[in-house]
């Protein structure tokens, strides 16, 4: 109930929370950035901001910071408001704004005093971007480490610079592409730029935005002390308000509800695109939300342009959310995350993103039963339980732990830091293990030192850092740097410095470690590697202190014609330059250089120009750094001259007044347009030569000539003057004294006549009556042929005929008055027009080397009809000789090719060889073209330009091909075909893609070289089966061969293949990797391969055949021999030489076997040594031997023996404190002596053999050193006061011997005098059946007995002890009670035993009470003592005699004693020695020297009483072997370790001998 109340309170809090802040922070405020990356082609780009308030007019746009283009919005930007249902404001940026749209923009809306702001970026087009952020928008929590990474898209040799929020350059980040902020804070949040120095205003640099949440992860609030709610589907908790800022396309308090395709917004009512394009409507849209969410693609898309759809198994914004669909179905809706088949176990919600709190377990589904190691509805999923334990058949959960590398409820997830199909790969992610997804992809890239798609590849030599993106810059010879830090073992490469040699040298230093200073001046840049200077502008030289020449002055000048003038050129240069002034119009100019100032030099040249015009001069200055050239002009101007005569304004007897019009540029002679001209009147008597002039130059246009002589004829002229020396012009034309015809003009109406027109002179000018006109005219070039004509005075028009064509004539018209022929005349020159020329002369054609060309030559037409302008040449083909006559018509202009030329020859090109052409040539003047001259010409033969036609294959065999073709077309044969040439080339194929292949002709690899034939069919033999060939053929004329035809491809038929090639790629101790190289050529499609291999020493041994199918694509177009195969021969014997051969098959059958390849497997670890055996032992030494391993797997180089004590029978010896010892033994020895051991101790031996590879597995054995003698068993004390009719109560002290394992209680009849034979010991029932007077009544475990200092036992209580029944005793019977101790020593299967001697017997049923008179056997103790003494004396005498007797026989006979299964037991209560029956286990027997038998070796006694008969002295017998008593124990042990009857035989001989001796003596 309490939990329900808390949940209700929490829900109520979240329901009220948005109401509280709805007027303030707008978490649903959304920015759409369409084309977040600007397109390269001209295209619009826009930003749309959508507010949930429904008041788009409150939204404002602005630039966030200045990243090089200022803070104003782009020039052509427009803003629009959009109403229901979107309610947005749009910032529209047309293509005209180009790259000014680059940078950071934001929109903001204010509600209730709280401003919600969203920032987005416009990136440059990919094609021109110089830097690219690895991640454009980075969101981190406060205190987290963050890397800002830029990728260099275009390398320039310029320094790299960073800025933050448009501020100053961050010097410490210079020339770095990756920078790290160790612990991000709010002060670090903002926009970062990376660019090449000097290129920030190009707007092609990298830009990214860092968003820092103000709290640690999962916390919010002013103090960051409140826990964030869970935000699903990629939502982020706001660090101040604590609400979820949802990704686009999701809504709800926890972003748990998906909007679906093409929708977004607080209530999923906003759409991206029109309804007709629903599924892909939100593609290319970058969505931005208020911080700390930042920006992402719409759900279902990712990539820099938000145009890549999510891969299978992922969904949501930027495709970062994994699907959680039911097992067996990885796919979910890439937009919403919904699963068609439902959510996977443990997940709920619309998008299956909410963990199910109740999914702690699933009940076992008894209907599903999978094999061990499998689970799932179809048992197709693999369990990953530790030690192979079976998992739940339905869920896959394990009852215990997951196997190594796996985790999760169903052990189906890799442990943190591992990935891969079997979780065998280790993550190497920059963000740590949490940054590694299940496919090994690292979201933030690889950690330093690693690269590759899953960061599994170590950096190649010469690269380091995150993603191996940085090249090492270590000094030459030490180029390898640390793959993680980039640090070098030695110095940095020239041009670099810093801890990891990644920092460029500053401009002032260069060289290794930047330890040398630069000497560049005048703004020169120092080369950071060798210190050489890269100079700016004109500066040159090693230190930028010199420069190339620069002409600083070469002014244009002006001079009057014929006057000297100085021209100059001034240049600036270091070192001094050579300067030269030249002009093509004034040769032989000599100049001399002089220095004007520091580094400034001048050359001056004095020139005189005699003709008006512009003289262009060139000044060239050069030194060792280059040259420069500049032109300047000398303007040469003729003095001005009036073209019109001055007018006589008035005349008297002594003076004349003259006037003139002003001088005008271009209308008059000389001068230039801007001249201001002065005038001077000159005059002379007609008879004089020298002119006289008035006093001064004037600017007026009239003057009075005074002081003239009366009645005297004068000539008067006017001179003009311009500025400058020599600016005075010559006198103007003299004024007329008589009238001449006015407007005298000549017009040539045709080529042989001229029409003259004029106007009559004024009578006032004539001063006499005009009688007629006299005309003089002549060829201007020849005044000898002057002609005359008299023309009436009334005529003003006259035509002259029969003139020469195109000839210049001079006409002079004189007035004839009553006073005679005038001295002055009107004059005009005219040229008669041209006429059309006649035909050209001597038209001929000439062959040239090129058969497609003809050279035409001719001479000019006869006579002069004018200036010949061009010749017109027309030609057309009349016939092609190989094709018969054509339908050529000379009158058809469509068949002609027309050319023109000014020369009297022309080359006709591109003609058809071996053809007849019709050619015409005519000349032209300005009057037109004249008559044509005709010519027929033949072209030479040429090589054919066509190819044989209809080439086809008519026969195909395994090694033969037959081709046939038709002749070349007649118009392309270019001559008579004299033969054909053909060739055949090999062809190979290469694959373009999975479905297409392309042929490639092997140039130069001729199957049949170029060969001539007279026919049109060839039969080719000796070809390779199943080989593609290219056949070509060409024609041949007397001029040579034509082009080859297009290749005709054909393949020969299949045949059995040649042998493939075998080579060894790799080998190990058990495997050989073979490279199976198919035959080339293959003679067909390889279908199968067959391998045969066997040990080289014996081919018949284990010969194996392996059939390998060729799985490659087999089609008729694939004529190669297939790909190289590799095959792994497995389960081979180490260090063994194998022989291998191979063959392959095609459709026709199996081919040849390859040559036998011999290869040996590598050495391996040897198998354990065999047959470890004990060679000898003592109580302090052991000698062991062994045999070599069954398979040595190489050359045995030594053996290693390790030994240590395991247990001991000596209680004083502490095994735990003894250390293991080891020793190496030569491979030739195979035995080892161990000395200094401890007695009665069990030792473990480990023996390993070694090859070059190392030591193999161990062989183990356990042996004991000789035992110390076992202590005498304890004697039981009979407590007679507790004796009953069927029981006897005994007490004994346990033995302190560590080897004692059992205590046996033996009941013996008191009358038994033969002693106890341990071999015959058995239980009560067996003893009765075998009539043995003793039996084992109980067997006690020593571990229980040893717990008591005194152990009490009731003999005859009827219970069972250790498998023996403690039978009640019989009343009235007398018994002896003995105790037998058994010491057993494991691993050797041996034991020792001892039986106590009975001190007294006890009669059951009679209670013996002690009294004051002690009696023994009913006799007083005093009498008993005397009896004993007497018996002792008698016994002593008997023993003395017996000793004397035996000493005489000692040298002749061996003393025989009864023996047991191996050990002498001095503690036994009888004189015989007994065997203990102890069955060893099979395992013990394998490593034990004890004879492998389940039965005890029973040695029968020769006489029940144990006494020996005396030997017959006459028949003394030797035993087969003499053994000293001291060595009898070892002798018996050695006999028992061998499976032989020798010991029994010896004992039999010994007992027989004893019997004989006894009988003899008796």
Automatic annotation (TrEMBL):
Residues 225-256 form the EGF-like domain. The chain crosses the membrane at residues 1421-1446. SUPFAM superfamilies: Fibronectin type III, Immunoglobulin. It is a single-pass type I membrane protein. The keyword Aminoacyl-tRNA synthetase does not apply. Residues 1-23 form the signal peptide. Disulfide bonds join 246-255. It is found in: Membrane. Coiled coil: none annotated. Keywords: Disulfide bond, EGF-like domain, Glycoprotein, Membrane, Signal, Transmembrane, Transmembrane helix. Residues 642-739, 740-835, 839-945, 947-1055, 1057-1164, 1168-1270 form the Fibronectin type-III domain. InterPro entries: EGF, FN3_dom, Fn3_PTPRU, FN3_sf, Ig-like_dom, Ig-like_dom_sf, Ig-like_fold, Ig_sub. Residues 74-194, 549-635 form the Ig-like domain. PANTHER family: INACTIVE TYROSINE-PROTEIN KINASE 7, PROTEIN KINASE RECEPTOR TIE-1, PUTATIVE-RELATED. This is Tenascin-like isoform X3. The lineage of its organism: Eukaryota, Metazoa, Ecdysozoa, Arthropoda, Chelicerata.
């Amino acid at each position: 109930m309490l939990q329900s109340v808390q949940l209700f309170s929490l829900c109520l809090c979240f329901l009220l929370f948005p109401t509280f802040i709805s007027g303030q922070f707008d978490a649903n405020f959304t920015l759409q950035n369409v084309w977040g990356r600007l397109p390269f082609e001209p295209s619009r780009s826009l930003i749309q901001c959508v507010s949930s308030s429904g008041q788009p007019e409150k939204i404002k746009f602005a630039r966030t910071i200045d990243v090089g283009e200022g803070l104003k919005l782009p020039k052509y930007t427009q803003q629009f408001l959009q109403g229901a249902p979107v309610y947005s404001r749009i910032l529209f940026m047309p293509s005209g704004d180009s790259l000014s749209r680059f940078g950071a923009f934001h929109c903001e809306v204010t509600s209730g005093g709280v401003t919600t702001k969203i920032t987005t970026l416009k990136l440059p087009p990919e094609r021109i971007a110089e830097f690219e952020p690895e991640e454009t928008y980075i969101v981190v929590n406060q205190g987290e480490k963050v890397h800002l990474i830029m990728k260099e898209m275009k390398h320039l040799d310029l320094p790299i610079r960073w800025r933050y929020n448009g501020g100053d350059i961050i010097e410490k980040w210079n020339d770095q592409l990756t920078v790290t902020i160790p612990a991000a804070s709010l002060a670090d949040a903002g926009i970062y730029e990376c660019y090449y120095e000097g290129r920030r205003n190009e707007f092609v640099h990298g830009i990214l935005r860092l968003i820092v949440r103000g709290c640690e992860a999962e916390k919010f609030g002013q103090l960051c002390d409140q826990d964030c709610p869970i935000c699903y589907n990629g939502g982020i908790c706001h660090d101040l308000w604590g609400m979820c800022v949802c990704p686009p396309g999701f809504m709800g308090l926890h972003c748990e509800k998906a909007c679906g395709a093409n929708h977004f917004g607080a209530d999923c009512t906003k759409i991206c695109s029109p309804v007709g394009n629903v599924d892909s409507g939100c593609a290319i849209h970058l969505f931005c939300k208020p911080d700390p969410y930042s920006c992402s693609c719409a759900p279902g898309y990712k990539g820099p342009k938000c145009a890549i759809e999510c891969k299978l198994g992922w969904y949501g914004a930027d495709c970062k959310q994994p699907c959680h669909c039911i097992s067996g179905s990885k796919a979910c809706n890439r937009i919403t995350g919904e699963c068609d088949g439902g959510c996977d176990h443990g997940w709920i919600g619309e998008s299956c993103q909410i963990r199910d709190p109740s999914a702690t377990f699933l009940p076992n589904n008894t209907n599903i039963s999978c094999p061990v190691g499998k689970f799932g509805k179809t048992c197709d999923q693999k369990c990953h339980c530790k030690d192979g334990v079976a998992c739940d058949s339905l869920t896959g959960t394990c009852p215990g732990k997951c196997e190594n590398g796996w985790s999760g409820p169903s052990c189906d997830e890799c442990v943190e830091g591992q990935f891969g199909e079997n979780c065998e790969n280790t993550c190497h992610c920059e963000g740590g293990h949490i940054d590694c997804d299940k496919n090994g992809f690292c979201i933030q890239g690889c950690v330093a030192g690693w690269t590759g798609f899953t960061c599994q590849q170590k950096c190649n030599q010469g690269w380091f850092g995150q993603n191996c993106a940085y090249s090492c810059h270590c000094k030459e010879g030490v180029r390898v740097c640390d793959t993680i830090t980039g640090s070098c073992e030695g110095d940095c490469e020239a041009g670099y410095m810093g801890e990891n040699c990644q920092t460029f040298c500053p401009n002032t230093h260069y060289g290794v470690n930047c330890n040398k200073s630069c000497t560049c001046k005048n703004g020169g840049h120092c080369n950071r590697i060798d210190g050489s200077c890269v100079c700016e502008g004109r500066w040159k030289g090693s230190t930028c202190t010199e420069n190339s020449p620069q002409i600083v002055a070469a002014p244009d000048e002006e001079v009057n014609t014929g006057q000297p003038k100085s021209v100059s050129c001034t240049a600036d240069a270091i070192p001094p330059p050579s300067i030269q002034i030249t002009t093509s119009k004034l040769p032989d100019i000599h100049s001399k250089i002089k220095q004007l100032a520091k580094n400034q030099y001048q050359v001056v040249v004095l020139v005189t120009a005699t003709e008006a015009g512009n003289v262009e001069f060139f000044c060239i200055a050069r030194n060792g750094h280059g040259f420069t050239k500049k032109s300047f002009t000398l303007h040469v101007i003729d003095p001005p001259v009036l073209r019109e005569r001055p007018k006589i304004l008035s005349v008297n007897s002594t003076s004349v007044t003259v006037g003139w019009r002003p001088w005008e540029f271009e209308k008059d002679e000389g001068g230039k347009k801007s001249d201001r001209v002065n005038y001077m009147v000159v005059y002379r008597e007609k008879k004089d030569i020298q002119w006289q002039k008035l006093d001064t130059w004037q600017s007026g246009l009239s003057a009075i000539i005074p002081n003239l002589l009366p009645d005297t004829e004068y000539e008067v002229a006017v001179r003009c003057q311009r500025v400058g020396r020599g600016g005075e012009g010559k006198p103007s034309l003299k004024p007329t004294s008589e009238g001449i015809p006015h407007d005298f003009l000549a017009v040539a109406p045709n080529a042989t006549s001229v029409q003259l027109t004029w106007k009559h002179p004024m009578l006032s000018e004539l001063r006499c009556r005009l009688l007629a006109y006299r005309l003089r005219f002549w060829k201007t070039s020849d005044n000898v042929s002057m002609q005359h004509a008299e023309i009436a005075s009334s005529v003003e028009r006259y035509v002259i005929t029969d003139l020469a064509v195109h000839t210049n004539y001079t006409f002079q018209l004189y007035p004839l008055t009553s006073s005679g022929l005038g001295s002055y005349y009107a004059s005009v020159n005219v040229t008669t027009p041209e006429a059309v020329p006649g035909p050209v002369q001597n038209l001929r054609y000439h062959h040239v080397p090129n058969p497609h060309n003809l050279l035409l030559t001719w001479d000019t037409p006869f006579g002069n009809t004018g200036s010949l302008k061009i010749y017109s040449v027309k030609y057309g083909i009349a016939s092609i000789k190989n094709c018969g006559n054509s339908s050529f018509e000379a009158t058809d202009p469509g068949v002609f090719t027309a050319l023109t030329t000014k020369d009297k020859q022309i080359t006709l090109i591109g003609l058809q060889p071996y053809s007849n052409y019709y050619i015409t040539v005519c000349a032209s003047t300005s009057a037109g073209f004249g008559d044509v001259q005709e010519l027929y010409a033949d072209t030479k033969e040429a090589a054919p330009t066509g190819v044989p036609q209809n080439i086809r294959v008519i026969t195909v065999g395994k090694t033969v091909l037959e081709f046939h073709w038709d002749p070349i077309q007649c118009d392309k044969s270019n001559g008579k075909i004299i033969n054909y040439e053909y060739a055949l080339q090999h062809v190979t194929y290469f694959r373009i893609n999975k479905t297409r292949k392309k042929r490639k002709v092997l140039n130069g690899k001729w199957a049949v070289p170029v060969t001539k034939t007279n026919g049109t069919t060839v039969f080719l033999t000796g070809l390779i089966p199943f080989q593609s060939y290219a056949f070509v053929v060409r024609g041949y004329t007397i001029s040579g061969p034509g082009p080859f035809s297009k290749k005709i491809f054909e393949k020969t038929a299949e045949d059995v293949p040649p042998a493939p090639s075998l080579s060894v790629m790799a080998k190990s101790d058990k495997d050989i990797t073979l490279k199976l190289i198919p035959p080339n050529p293959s003679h067909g499609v390889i279908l199968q391969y067959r391998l045969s291999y066997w040990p080289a020493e014996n081919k018949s041994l284990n010969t194996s055949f392996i059939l390998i199918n060729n799985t490659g694509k087999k089609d008729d177009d694939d004529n190669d021999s297939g790909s190289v195969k590799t095959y792994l021969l497995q389960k081979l014997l180490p260090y063994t030489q194998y022989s291998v051969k191979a063959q392959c098959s095609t459709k026709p059958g199996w081919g040849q076997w390859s040559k036998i390849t011999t290869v040996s497997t590598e050495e391996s670890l040897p198998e354990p040594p065999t047959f470890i055996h004990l060679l000898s032992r003592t109580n302090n030494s052991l000698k062991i031997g062994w045999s070599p391993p069954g398979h040595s797997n190489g050359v045995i180089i030594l053996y290693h023996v390790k030994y240590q004590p395991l247990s001991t029978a000596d209680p004083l010896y502490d095994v735990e404190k003894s250390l293991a010892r080891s020793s190496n033994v030569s491979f030739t020895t195979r035995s080892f002596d161990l000395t200094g051991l401890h007695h009665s101790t069990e030792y473990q031996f480990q023996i390993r053999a070694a090859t070059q590879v190392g030591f193999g597995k161990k062989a183990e054995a356990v042996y004991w050193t000789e035992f110390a003698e076992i202590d005498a068993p304890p004697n039981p004390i009979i407590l007679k006061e507790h004796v009953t009719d069927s029981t006897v109560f005994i007490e004994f002290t346990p033995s302190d011997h560590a080897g004692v394992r059992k205590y046996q209680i033996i009941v013996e009849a008191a009358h038994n005098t033969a002693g106890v034979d341990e071999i015959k010991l058995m239980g009560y029932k067996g003893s009765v059946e075998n009539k043995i007077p003793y039996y084992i009544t109980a067997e006690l475990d020593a571990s229980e007995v040893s717990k008591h200092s005194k152990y009490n036992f009731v003999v005859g209580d009827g219970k069972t002890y250790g498998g023996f029944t403690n039978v009640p005793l019989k009343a009235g019977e007398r018994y002896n009670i003995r105790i037998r101790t058994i010491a057993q020593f494991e691993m050797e299967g041996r034991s020792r035993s001892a039986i106590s001697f009975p001190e007294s017997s006890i009669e059951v049923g009679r209670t013996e009470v002690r009294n004051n008179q002690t009696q023994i056997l009913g006799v007083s103790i005093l009498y008993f003592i005397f009896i004993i003494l007497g018996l002792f004396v008698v016994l002593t005498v008997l023993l003395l005699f017996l000793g004397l007797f035996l000493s005489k026989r000692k040298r002749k006979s061996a003393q025989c004693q009864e023996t047991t299964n191996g050990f002498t037991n001095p503690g036994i209560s009888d004189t015989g020695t007994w065997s203990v029956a102890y069955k060893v286990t099979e395992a013990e027997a394998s490593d034990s020297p004890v004879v492998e038998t389940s039965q005890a070796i029973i040695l029968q006694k020769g006489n029940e009483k144990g006494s020996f008969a005396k030997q017959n002295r006459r028949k003394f017998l030797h035993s087969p072997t003499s053994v000293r008593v001291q060595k009898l124990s070892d002798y018996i042990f050695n006999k028992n370790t061998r499976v032989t009857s020798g010991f029994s035989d010896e004992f039999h001989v010994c007992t027989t001998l004893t019997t004989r001796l006894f009988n003899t003596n008796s």
